[in-house]
Amino acid sequence: MAKRNFLFLWLLSFPFYGGGSGAAQDDSSRIRVSVVLVQLNIAVTDGKGNYVSGLNPEDFSITEDKIPEKTATFEEGNEPPRRLIDVSPSGGHLPQETGKGAVTIVQKSAAGDPVKTPDLWAAGANVFILFDTSNYMYRGFVFAQDSIADFIRSLEGVSKVALYSYSRDLSRVSALTSDRTQALRGVRNTVAGDDAALYNSLLLTVKDAARLTGKKAIVVFSNGPDNASLVPPEDVAELAQSTGTIIYMISTQQAEDEPVSTAVFERMSKVTGGKAYFSKSWRDEKQAFASIRDDLAHLYTLSYYPQPNPNRGWRTITVKLVGKNLQKYHIRTRDGYRLLQQTQSADNLPLPGPDPVSQ
Q1: Is 9 exposed, middle or buried (0-12, 13-18, 19+ CB in 10 A)?
Q2: Are 243 and 211 in contact (CB under 8 A)?
Q3: Can you list the residues of the chain whose pLDDT is less than 70?
Q4: Counting Cβ atoms within 10 Å, is residue 314 exposed (0-12), middle (13-18) or buried (19+)?
Q5: The domain that contains 35 carries what CATH number?
Q6: I need a surface site. Which of 10, 36, 122, 251 has the fewest CB within 10 A?
């Protein structure tokens, strides 16, 4: 197994970058990430799986390592986000990040007046579609293209969409854009390839999504297990979880027949706040895409500035609903992130990226 030496120092989502199409092996650099805002995407459902709408910020209780946190921004579905606080919970002025993908924070003058009032991120989600074009897909390639095209057309309330494809290498077919026509054109330009390096490609997609603020999700359409990656799926899942990127997995019966792939897909989606779907037919796949579209439209997005916390490793996030009348509902979201500098492996698959972004 290749030796791995990745350096991750993360808290949320913004500063990972990727550039251009190509294999995961093309670049080598070391990335450091330091962020001040933790963002949660939360689905609230009743006992029948129906979405619960109309909740307010005060209906949610957030703790990090059992330390109560105060909600800084709040967004329901495709509504514009609302800023609830301008200064950090500790009472100090919030630092202002610089660089592409950074969040602008309100700073206060000596008199306590805002120096500037920045805009928050745009309403809606940024969605990356990762399409399996490996040799697993030969039999139903055209049907898969149709399902993805229908999904793109139906994405109301989504800010931008990107289409990536993968076989042994990742191809950024259509960059993140608000132009649905460009993304649809990219779907028709995809061609089937060879082996499937899903986890390599998903890692790079997570890095691209992670630099964005606001709601972001990756929809993976896979027709089979991974047979060519050097990156372990656990590393990909933890990076997505720690950067606030939701992963939805749509796979076919072929992947479901392999217990290892099934377990990986289910865990990867669960820990990031997403879902896994195993489709027995192309009709099931269309229904899975429709379910993901509805999920994105009903998520609550909350963020907070963490209170001082001596824990330098994994920080556990707990979200609860407040009030007796809300205890009957269920919550789905990620349950933590890793702050501590971590060493991981794969000399043959270094993380590409530009200079570090600091807070």
Answers
A1: middle
A2: no
A3: 1-35, 86-120, 253-256, 340-359
A4: middle
A5: 3.40.50.410
A6: 122
Identify the burial level of 132 via C-beta atoms within 10 angstroms of its C-beta, where 0-12 means exposed, 13-18 middle and 19 or more buried.
Answer: buried
- Is residue 164 domain-resident? yes
Q: d(Cα 351, Cα 358) in Å, to the nearest integer?
A: 18
The tally of domains found in the chain comes to 1
Rounded Cα gap, residues 173 and 207, in angstroms? 16
C-alpha to C-alpha distance for 319 and 322, rounded to whole angstroms:
10
What are the distances in angstroms from CA 150 to CA 30, 33, 163, 203? Answer: 38, 36, 13, 26
Q: How many helices (H) and strands (E) does the chain have?
A: 7, 17
pLDDT digits (tens, 9 = 90+) for 283-312: 898 899 999 999 999 999 999 999 999 998
Q: Which structural domain range is residue 350 located in?
A: 1-86+121-359
Instruction: Of 242, 264, 272, 267, give the one whose Cα is nearest residue 342.
Output: 242
Q: Are residues 86 and 108 in contact, defined by beta-carbon separation less than 8 angstroms?
A: yes
Fill in the amino acid letter for 110: A
Q: Which SS3 state, helix, strand or coil, does residue 290 take?
A: helix
Q: Tell me: the pLDDT tens digits for 314-337?
A: 999 999 999 999 999 999 999 999
Residue 98 lies in a domain: no
> Which of helix, strand or coil describes residue 131?
strand
Taking the model in full, what pTM does it have? 0.78
Does residue 310 lie in a domain region?
A: yes
Q: What is the mean pLDDT of the chain?
A: 79
Q: Is residue 166 part of a domain?
A: yes
Report the candidate in 200, 186, 190 with the shortest Cα–Cα distance to residue 138: 190
pLDDT of residue 282: 79
